[in-house]
């Protein structure tokens, strides 16, 4: 059998030795511990910003200040222990989206991954003003679920910024958490990565030509083994984003009980829910969600209005609060998001070992 070497992921002048980006898992699942461990193992570590200030004392009185302070802290903590690649995952739907982008630039993150909405207006801060000054901006990587969304973003940037994003994450319907699909599209073969990856590569070609730069496509959603990575590389992807597998690592920032929920779940425990923010999401079924399915409301006060799309006056529960409880291991009052393959997880291992296994599976495939 011919040995194949896993190639590095090049995003402009940024090289990620192992072409695996750890997916951003918000509300305290991927913070500096996980991100720095992934970066030290050669991959792209990612700190997620939504609800990042949850441990700050003033989170319920001034969540924007708490989030800003916590993001700076987490980036600096990661930087103190790694020279590797650190990215920041920022949901466009966040009410403090602009603050999170600004701090990522100020703290010199290597990349910003922008999902849960189209990153269009008021993003001049991400555009390098003069390439000759040596000014370093984070690589801009929108997360999309279709070639149509990618085209809208790239056309807007082309027209308004005379610049285009540096790479794209194409997230398929097998991902965990909030999904960029309608409910009926999730199991429809027309929306699989196999179908959408060639489409997005084709849409990006004219932009690559016009701006004379390579735009790597990074695929996400349901990627579990090194063989999966090899499969998508054969189809033209140049990197993968994986989240679910990184929950089951020693360095993941979630509580032990949260990780245990992944070890305990079965295939039919992974369900699609209607999130209060207006998107479907994939989560692990538990008593909390069962009660929500049965129509039971979970009373709450909205301290934050953290997502622009959340209709908190009619929502049956507060998703930020439910995910915060779960992160701490309190599943009476919350639930865990997870990808479609979470049921395959049967052990917690160090990040370094996970990445080593994935490389070996890829190269021996």
What would a concise description of this structure say?
This protein is α/β, with parallel strands linked by helices and 365 residues long.
Radius of gyration: 19 Å
Count of individual domains: 2
The average pLDDT is 90
Q: Write down the overall geometry.
A: globular
What does this protein look like?
The protein has helices at 32-40, 63-81, 97-106, 147-161, 193-211, 226-234, 244-247, 256-264, 287-293, 319-327, 351-363; strands at residues 9-11, 14-16, 20-22, 44-48, 85-91, 111-115, 139-144, 168-171, 177-178, 217-220, 239-242, 270-274, 280-284. With 365 residues, it is of the alpha/beta class. Helix 1 packs parallel to helix 2 (63-81) and helix 4 packs parallel to helix 5. The N and C termini lie close together (8 Å).
Keywords:
single chain, 365 residues, alpha/beta, TIM Barrel, 2 domains, 8-stranded parallel beta sheet, 3-stranded antiparallel beta sheet, 11 helices, 13 strands, globular
SSE topology:
Blueprint: E1 9-11, E2 14-16, E3 20-22, H1 32-40, E4 44-48, H2 63-81, E5 85-91, H3 97-106, E6 111-115, E7 139-144, H4 147-161, E8 168-171, E9 177-178, H5 193-211, E10 217-220, H6 226-234, E11 239-242, H7 244-247, H8 256-264, E12 270-274, E13 280-284, H9 287-293, H10 319-327, H11 351-363
Parallel strand pairs: 3-11, 4-5, 5-6, 6-7, 7-8, 8-10, 10-11
Antiparallel strand pairs: 1-2, 9-13, 12-13
Helix pairs in contact: 1-2, 2-3, 4-5, 6-11
